[in-house]
Amino acid sequence: MAKDKSDDLTSAAGISKQVLRRVWDDVQNNNLKLINCPDHRFVKVIQDLQIRYMCTECGGDIDSHAHYWYQHGLKHGINSIPHTTKST
Which of 30, 31, 35, 71 is most buried, by CB atoms within 10 Å? Predict the structure, then answer.
């Protein structure tokens, strides 16, 4: 029987294929939530001494690095909008 790459991963991580599948499914579900959300609103959540950010709109969550770059992108997006003034 041919060995697949999940055998290497489960062996190295010391987890079963069922746990690996559950983690993979969770990651895919979280990704779908985030992709399909039209307007993220993240709040800080501390889990097991780890800072995460959860979107109150879609329930998706991201780590602090992703949150930093998301906020950085928003800032750059706002700054790239041309500002006009009305003449009176």
Answer: 30
